[in-house]
What does this fold into?
Amino acid sequence: MFNPSREEARRFFFDVWRKEQDKVLMTPLESLAWQIISHHPEYHGLLAQPERYLEREWFPEQGETNPFLHLGLHLAVEEQLSIDQPAGIRSAYERLCQELRDEHAARHRLLECLAEVVWESQRHGTPPDGARYLQLVRGDGR
It folds into this structure.
């Protein structure tokens, strides 16, 4: 999934849900996605209904969270932690885990910061700023 379309990204998560329900062997990426999905029971009903939710829109300005964006950001954070990219993200995450005493909450903090950096880069038409991301994660960039 290097540059999937919105539909492809959503179908990926629907397929992971179906494979888990059917107890079908998954790829390593699918297994990672399942681990993330399993921590989000609020999305289970949605993932069981691809025909209903494949095209649905979520509007942040109305307080809605796009579940596919949320899950995708989780995957991005897992990749970043696995390769420590941007450099220092793993140690910043470990500090957050100690501070929050909750790995999932620490991951959520990372994805909130990542979402902000991605939004800023889209708004300015620039690549995402890794240094800014680390600033936000460390709490000295707000």
In short: The two ends are 32 Å apart (CA to CA). The helical segments are 6-22, 28-38, 44-47, 50-53, 67-83, 89-100, 103-124, 130-138. The chain has eight helices and no strands. The chain has a mean pLDDT of 94.
